[in-house]
Design a protein that fits this description.
This is ParA family protein. It comes from Methylobacterium longum. Pfam families: CbiA. It contains ten helices and six strands, in the order βαβαβαβαβααβαααα. The protein is an alpha/beta fold. The protein has one domain: 3-Layer(aba) Sandwich (Rossmann fold), CATH 3.40.50.300. It has a six-stranded parallel β-sheet with strand order 3-2-4-1-5-6. The radius of gyration is 16 Å and the shape is globular. The relative contact order is 0.18. Bound molecules: adenosine-5'-triphosphate (ATP) and magnesium ion. Magnesium ion (MG) binds next to helix 1.
Length: 234
C-alpha cells in the first residue's frame, strides 16, 4: 500500500463528522460481473453523499487502481492492497479510520483466493451478478462463505448489466432474489455511460450527473447505506 495514496491530500480533504469506519466489499467469485465498475462509481456517489471515502483495490489485476490513476481530482482516495499485504488488511483499515476515512470500499478479485480473509470484518458485501443463471449459480459459494462468516444480514446481490426493461428474465431473477431477502435495489442497467466514466477516471455520477445510470448508482448507494444502518449489531 502506498501510504500517500493516489487521491486526496489532507489539505484539500472535505471534512466529515468523526465517526466509525464502515467497510463495504464488492465481491463475488466470478469474473467480469461489474465489481470494479460498481466499486468505483459507488465510491464517488458515497463521497458526493458526504462520506470520506477510500477505495481500496485488492485485486492483483489492478483495474480500480488504474482508474484511480486517471483521476484528476481527489474527492476519493484510491490505493492498492497487494496480495502479500492482505494479512495486514485490518491494520490498514484501522489506519484509514484514524486518518478520517468514514467509508472504505474494497474491490476484490473474481476468484475465491483470499476472499474469506478479506471479508471477515466488513460491514457489507455487495455481490454483482448479471441476470443469468450462470452468474447467479456461480455466486453461491461466495454467498455460503459469507453466511458462514456471520454476514447473512450484511450482504446482497445486485443485478448488473441488465437489459433495458421490460426484461422478463431480469424480473424473474429479481423476484427470486427478493423473495430470499438478498436483492439490492435498484438493478443496474447495461449503459455505455458506465464504460465511458471508468475509461476517464470518473464515477458515473461525475461523468453524466443527470443520466439514468447516475440515478441508479445514487439509489444503490442509498439502499446499501440504509441496509448497513438497519443491520443488527455484530
Ligand atoms: N452496468 C454496466 N453497463 C455497461 N457496462 C458495464 C456495466 N457494468 C460493467 N460493465 C462492463 O463490463 C465489463 C466488466 O466489468 P468490470 O471490470 O467492472 O467487472 P469485474 O467484476 O470487476 O471484473 P473482474 O472479475 O475481471 O475484476 C467491463 O467492460 C465494464 O465496462
Ligand atoms: Mg474488477
Amino acid at each position: 500500500m502506498d501510504p500517500e495514496g493516489s487521491g486526496r491530500s489532507p489539505d484539500t480533504a472535505p471534512r466529515h463528522a468523526a465517526g466509525p469506519l464502515r467497510v463495504v466489499a464488492v465481491a463475488v467469485q466470478k469474473g467480469g460481473t461489474g465489481k470494479t465498475t460498481l466499486a468505483a462509481s459507488l465510491a464517488i456517489a458515497a463521497a458526493e453523499a458526504g462520506e470520506h471515502v477510500t477505495a481500496l483495490d485488492l485485486d492483483p489485476q489492478g483495474s480500480l487502481a488504474g482508474w484511480g490513476a486517471l483521476r484528476k481530482e481527489g474527492s476519493v482516495a484510491v490505493d492498492r492492497v497487494r496480495p502479500w499485504e492482505m494479512g495486514q488488511l485490518a491494520e490498514i483499515l484501522g489506519l484509514l479510520a484514524e486518518q478520517g476515512t468514514t467509508l472504505a470500499i474494497l474491490d476484490t478479485a473474481g476468484s475465491s483466493a483470499g476472499l474469506a480473509a478479506a471479508l471477515r470484518d466488513v460491514d457489507f458485501v455487495l455481490m454483482p451478478v448479471r441476470p443469468s443463471r450462470l452468474d447467479i449459480v456461480a455466486a453461491r459459494p461466495t454467498l455460503q462463505a459469507l453466511v458462514g462468516l456471520g454476514l447473512r444480514d450484511r450482504l446482497a446481490l445486485v443485478l448488473n448489466q441488465c437489459p433495458p426493461p421490460p426484461s422478463p428474465r431480469t424480473s424473474a431473477y429479481a423476484a427470486q432474489l427478493r423473495a430470499l431477502g438478498v436483492l439490492a435495489e435498484p438493478g443496474i442497467i447495461h449503459r455505455v455511460d458506465h464504460q465511458d466514466a471508468l475509461a476517464t477516471g470518473l464515477g458515473v455520477t461525475e461523468y453524466a450527473p443527470g443520466s439514468p445510470a447516475a440515478g441508479e448508482i445514487r439509489a444503490l448507494w442509498t439502499w446499501i447505506d440504509a441496509k448497513m444502518r438497519a443491520a443488527p449489531a455484530r
